[in-house]
Design brief:
By secondary structure, the protein is mainly beta. The protein contains one helix and ten strands, in the order H-E-E-E-E-E-E-E-E-E-E. The chain has one domain.
Length: about 130
Amino acid sequence: MSQPIQEKCLLDFYAGVWLFAANKAFYPGEVVSSQEPMGAFQFHVSYNFNPLLWVAFNTTYYLGGASSFDGQFNDDRRDNTWVGITAVVPTGKLSSVKLAASTGAVVRIGQDFNTLSICWQKSWLSDLKRKD
C-alpha cells in the first residue's frame, strides 16, 4: 500500500553558529589571526521513497565570519546563499552511498564555489534497523 505524498515529504530547518578561537601563532609565528562568529541557516525539503532511499533539496544562508590579522579586519565576511541536492541510496542493511552537489545561488561577499561529494556511510547502531 502506498503512502500519501505528505507522509513521504519532510521539511526541516536548522540554525547554527561557528565560534572561532584566536590563533596566536599564525604564520609566520607572531601574527594573531582571529575570526568573528559565523551564522548559518539551512532549510531542507526531502522526499522519502522508503526509509533508506531519499532525495532532498537544500538551501543554506551564511553570514558573518570576517577574519582579521593582528586586529586588521579583512573584507571576507560571508553573506551568501547556497542551493543543492542530496540523495541517499542504500547499499546494505546498515550502509548507504550519499551523493551531494551544491552551488552559490547568491554570493554577495565571500567565496563562490561549487561542491560535489560522494561518500559511503556505515551505521553501527543495529537497534535502529527497520523491523518489518
